[in-house]
Amino acid sequence: MKINRRSALRKTGQIALASVFGGNIVNVLADAAATSKAIAEFAGDATPAAGTITLTAPEIAENGNTVPISVSVESPMTEESYVESVMIVAEDNPNPEVATFHFTPASGVARASTRMRLAKTQNVIAVAKMNDGSVFTDTRNVKVTIGGCGG
Rounded to whole angstroms, how far apart are CA atoms 16 and 22? Predict the structure, then answer.
């Protein structure tokens, strides 16, 4: 196959267009269904219940580019009863899955913190999966004054 300058430029343009419009397609597809699907895949057959997990997030975030959050789960963290993982989801972000933290009994405590981007005012959801298969959830609404995901 012979590649000339014209075909190389055409391919470069096609790649550029695909990446520009591909990003917009992802933004359009961000919805509650994607969030529900992510939580369902994480939880498996279990139905998430309230309690045991605490999500801490600011009520108002001045800037959506860097929103501090922390999560903790009440657990003895023994071989018999411990937190396997915690997932953080931002309901209206282009990609709702923000972070997943993994724990073992050797972790001692199930606590983590990070900073995340929020596109706009939305619910942030933390879901904890225990070693016995039970799943717990906590939700906080964060009001964003300046969006951090291109908003």
Answer: 10
